Amino acid sequence: MAKPLEIVSKITKNNCMDSQLYAFVSDFRNFAAMVPEEHRDKAQFSEHSVTIQVMQGIQVSLQIIEEEPYKLIKLGSEQSKEFCIWIQLKQVAPYDTRIRITLHAEIPMMAKMFAKSKLQTFVDGFADALAQIPVYAFQGNNLN
After folding, report:
1. Which of 11, 31, 102, 127 is in the most buried spot, having the most CB atoms within 10 Å?
2. Please, which residues have CB within 8 angstroms of residue 140's CB and are 6 or more apart in sequence?
3. How many other CB atoms are there within 10 angstroms of residue 60's CB atom?
């Protein structure tokens, strides 16, 4: 079997405590408000899982499959280990938490050439989005 594709994002920074960002990111209901309105009907969010309609009749479900408080949230599917996303957090100073996203996917060799740049754009964009979550989201203004 071919080696799984690993895509690592750039490292981004959020001006919050790691515990605040972890609490926000580990509850998928908080992401519902971040999805553009035209796509909200294609996603269902619960505390520990999200189901997204990617095409007519095809849905992808991700859930938290592993977590280490304030440091790591691993998303994937219990049924398949072919795809997972790691959200890694590291507080380097008070109100300075660094974010890195790592994606692991088992993709056929020919598809890797085509998918790699799109997946890199995805993980970098995801890291950017997490970096932009405003501090006020953690101050009693829970979005769910």
Report:
1. 127
2. none
3. 12
Q: Which helix (H) or strand (E) holds 110?
A: helix 109-131
- Sole residue written with tokens 């908080």: 30
- Give per-residue pLDDT as tens, 12-54: 999 999 999 999 999 999 888 777 788 788 889 999 999 888 7
The owner of tokens 């790699």 is 116
Using DSSP bridges, classify how beta strands 12-14 and 96-105 pair: parallel, antiparallel or unpaired.
antiparallel
pLDDT tens readout for residues 102-130? 999 888 888 888 889 999 999 999 999 99
**Residue given tokens 């989201």 in the structure block:** 137
The better pLDDT of the pair 108, 55 is held by 108
Closest CA to 105 of 86, 89, 126, 130: 86
Helix (H, G, I), strand (E, B) or coil at 39: helix
> What SS3 class is residue 121?
helix
d(CA 48, CA 26): 7
Going by C-alpha positions, the residue among 33, 74, 79, 73 that lies closest to residue 59 is 79
Residue 74 corresponds to which amino acid? K
